[in-house]
Design goal:
By secondary structure, the chain is of the alpha/beta class. Helices cover 38% and strands 13% of the residues. The chain has a 6-stranded mixed β-sheet with strand order 1-2-3-4-5-6.
Length: 221
């Protein structure tokens, strides 16, 4: 399968992960896989290259199209392959930046390493200095989170639910306190100690309507 064909599948798999972008004012009308129009601070639409490293996943999140129990084609892009594809888009003026997420391939640590390596290749090997948003995988090591934040303009880790019980309704493979809240605390701590890391900030999002959580529980979170 060609890189373009892989990108079509992986971009479709990434379509429900949202992102706001806060710089530039460029737009793109190019109809190619992976181009996602994020909303800028002034309401303009900003084209980003948004894809997954892989749609393989060990998690069983009920709301996710990539969950482990689904039977469909599983693909993966290598860091070098993804970097070259992104730079082709960027150098041709199709996109302003990269928004990179991933399912879990073999292990959390190995998948995070591939995500980080993609950003490293772009920054160090190709001299790319524009926008990168990296998704942090729940359960990632503190070292990998720190290295991701050192390379990215923005990072995010999805909290998924407002409560521990709410998360348990939608997945059996994530620990709310350990895999998510603890990692969010690490991200806060790393940002405070390293002001130059992820200077555009770190964010989270949750799924509304996938469990029995009330509006009040969501607002309290």
């Amino acid at each position: 399968m060609s890189t373009l064909e892989k990108m079509q599948v992986l971009a479709d798999s990434a379509q429900y992960d949202l992102c706001d972008y806060v710089s530039h004012s460029k737009s793109s009308q190019v109809n190619l896989p992976g181009i996602y129009h994020a909303t800028g601070h002034n309401g303009c639409k900003i084209p980003l290259f948004k894809t997954l490293m892989t749609n393989k996943c060990k998690n069983d999140c009920k709301y996710c199209i990539n969950q482990s129990r689904r039977n469909f084609t599983r693909l993966e892009l290598s860091p070098e392959e993804l970097s070259r594809a992104f730079l082709h888009y960027y150098n041709n003026g199709y996109v302003n930046g990269l928004f990179l997420s991933s399912g879990i391939g073999d292990t959390i640590d190995n998948t995070m390493e591939k995500t980080i390596e993609t950003a490293r290749i772009l920054r160090k090997d190709y001299g790319y200095d524009d926008y990168i948003h990296l998704k942090i995988i729940p359960g990632a090591s503190k070292d990998s989170i720190k290295r991701a934040m050192s390379l990215a303009n923005r990072v995010s880790l999805n909290i998924e639910a407002a409560t521990k019980d709410g998360l348990s309704e939608i997945t059996s493979t994530k620990d709310y306190n350990k895999d998510i809240l603890k990692r969010l605390d690490w991200m806060n701590d790393i940002a405070k100690k390293n002001p130059s890391f992820a200077k555009s900030g770190h964010t989270t999002q949750l799924i509304v309507g996938a469990n029995d959580e009330t509006d009040l529980e969501i607002l309290k979170r």
